[in-house]
Amino acid sequence: MIPYSRQNIDKDDIQAVVNVLQSDFLTQGEQVPLFEKALCKIAQVKYSVAVNSATSALHLACLALDVGEGDLVWTSANTFVASANCALYCGAKIDFVDIDLATGNLSMSALAEKLTRASQIPKVVIPVHFAGQSCDMAALADLAKQYGFKIIEDASHALGASYQGQPVGNCQFSDITVFSFHPVKMATTGEGGALLTRSQTLAGRAKLLRSHGITRDSKLMTAAIPPWAYQQQGLGYNYRLTDMQAALGVSQLNRLDQFVEKRNSIALFYDRAFSGKQLLPLERNTGRSSVHLYVIRVEAAIREALFLELRKKGVGVNVHYMPVYWQPFYQELGFQKGLCECAEKYYCEAISLPVFPGLTGEQQQQVVDKVLQAVEKFS
Ligand SMILES: *Cc1c(COP(=O)(O)O)cnc(C)c1O
Q: Which residue puts its alpha carbon closest to atom 2 of ligand 1?
């Protein structure tokens, strides 16, 4: 089976991890700061805080922005559940914004319309750069200014992407950006995530929360303490990344450009092969996408048959995403189907095709052939 995504690990990656294993520190050594520095360089942003997953990063991002009980957070209906769960971890309420069918991204017009009839304005909006393409951040920042909400970019799909000539993660139009380093994403640490920000205050809060709310930094102490002591200044977590993971991350980031380049070339190959075929590939039109996913849309009536046929033929297709509020947990919270019309239509038609740096030309052609044959068979 050709998977829909797969990590790309080379000898340097392996050696980087082995080096850490043979060193003095497996965690809380020098690799995490090095990884954070590399992320700052890629995103051209001042601060980054690496943690053990993007889910943890989203949680800390919400906490750093003071999301708590009585607050409201909005995110895209078309995303992984973590983009919504983070608000609930903080005791806040969550609601969902509809998407643009053409891009799968949070729709700015749907958001603007929802804001005009909202009885409570969200404290934070979490746009998701679906499939690796940035949302319309300038429009979102305008709305944020008008209504006074904060922005956390869930850029789990979009490491290495750019928007208006700036790298995603540089936070020109947001308070915080979150990346994921899960193996299916653009670059991996096994499990891992990071939050990036221009704000020293937000970065400081996230750093504290990452490690139990504890600091050893003499500059941050609230009172004189003995030389061996540390201070717990808030209720934090253990969301730390290990040095093995960070070293793998540093090594992976050296090849990020190559990875994104390859994903884009595969997307172009698919675009050409499917042009004129009514398969409605996602539009990529707001800068360089990192092409985390390549999604086609087919008639809802044949989607499942097509999915099963492609799996049977060795093409590891997938579906991203069922609207979050269709999940049983969210249904039990009281969300009704019908809330986000476009996200629901999109979900019923979408199929994600394999795209990852190691996908060979032969495999790409195989994917195209199987897709076209299957569409022929069921149309
Ligand atoms: C993968 C993903 C996450 C969660 O990432 P983890 O690192 O696995 O916690 C969050 N949001 C989106 C949109 C994702 O795709």
A: 156
pLDDT bucket at 343, cuts 50 / 70 / 90: very high
| pTM score, whole prediction | 0.98
C-alpha 330 – ligand 1 centre gap (Å): 18
For a mutational test of ligand 1's pocket, the pick from 156, 178, 290, 322, i.e. the residue with the most ligand atoms closer than 8 A to its C-beta, is 156
| pLDDT recorded at residue 284 | 87
E-strand ranges in the chain read: 47-51, 72-76, 93-97, 124-126, 150-154, 162-163, 166-167, 176-180, 193-197, 214-215, 231-232, 294-297, 350-353
Burial label for 214, CB within 10 Å (0-12, 13-18, 19+), is: middle
**Binding pocket residue ranges, ligand 1, CB within 6 Å:** 53-55, 79-80, 82-83, 128, 154, 156-157, 180, 182, 193
Tell me the average pLDDT of the chain.
97
Alpha helix (H) ranges present in 117-255?
137-147, 200-210, 243-253
Separation CA 173–CA 65 (nearest Å): 15
pLDDT above 90 (res 379): no
How far, CA to CA in Å, does 215 sit from each of 50, 209, 221, 249, 253?
A: 16, 10, 8, 25, 29
What's the CA-to-centroid distance between 153 and ligand 1, angstroms? 12
Reported as a single tens digit per residue, the pLDDT across 206-230 is: 999 999 999 998 889 988 888 888 9
